């Protein structure tokens, strides 16, 4: 693992953290359970995945498990992850457990007991919803909080023995009709299929769209910081935030703060979203002083002031977005996009990594059925058909969630808060075993001003990417694509 480093510290820098992901990741990766019902492709392709992020690694692993020869091309010389906390929701924890990562997740991640939402100025509790065991009960898989670097390391270790990972291989151009990719070194890499998993700044997206397609600023930005848990335990006012791990969100006008424990409850993740006051052309990621960060949250409750006082400096990330693409598949049918390269997610729904990993699972499942080159393009279009509405719908939901959490103080905010209080009372009654009063679903289902929506959670967290791919094959693939397998195996 000489080319893998972890980046991200209490004060984010380019140095290894005090507690590195490698120090946590000691649990063995269990041999995966029978993936794709033991099925492997009759025709093995040479597949290139562009990008070694979370989605690229997941795609490489899944396609390798489907029986293909996979090469990952990563532009940087040393693979690492600059990041902070990330939510591993049930829709992807079920996949990772299926892939043999349950012990790794249990070792480095934190299973939050509840979600708590508070008012920005007073700290009043507006919403409390039990998570923990209820996630397994309701959605069939756990929800975890972890450090992005730890999640990346898990997927890297999972894929490494099955795929060829090449670093310092920046793609500068490609011919999607062959397909072939030209690297900055001048080397030309040929393949049967290319998967573009090169993120928000994707090069491969330009070829699918047919023109340069750059992300645009949303007008928001996020500060991120990670603190040692010991710092919070030493502060009486903050100790309750970490003694019983959970997610706490403070809602304010044009701003919100999300906090939770990560790294086996040894570190505390803080994300502070706010309106971006800097010009759009400013760098996407810039180091900021603690004073400027604190100035964005003047007047917030005392615990927030204490928490921010512990952060010596931070980085600010501009939040960028792209409109949904017309298609994820190049017209010649040998290049497809995945993850942020085709459906970048704003952080308000905490589903960006989840959508990329779901993409990967569907791709692998579909391509485990390949027996002819004639099936490549139809299977890519099947991948898009299965994933497009879900991913673009999640994009739209994340944008809507921003409007909910950033409401200015006033009538709409007061209505939102009343609904959350009612939902909290329902949750507390249910936890106590008391009878619920009236139509409780009205407090939590399908209401655009509700932060915690039971119906939306069921749709989002109950999703099984493998089941969706299997369902598509039964209903469409066997008749529409399966018959093409007998036409040619060359």
* Beta strand %: 15-25%
Name the average pLDDT.
89
Oligomer: single chain
Fraction of residues in helix: 25-40%
Shape: globular
Count every beta strand, where a strand is a DSSP E run of 2 or more residues.
Answer: 18
Which structural category fits the helices and strands? Answer: alpha/beta
Q: What is the CA–CA distance across the termini?
A: 37 Å
Contiguous helical run count: 17
Major beta-sheet overview: 8 strands, mixed
Strand order of the main beta sheet, please?
A: 5-4-13-14-15-12-17-16
Which regions contain 5 or more consecutive residues with pLDDT less than 50? 1-22
Q: Report the C-alpha radius of gyration, rounded.
A: 23 Å
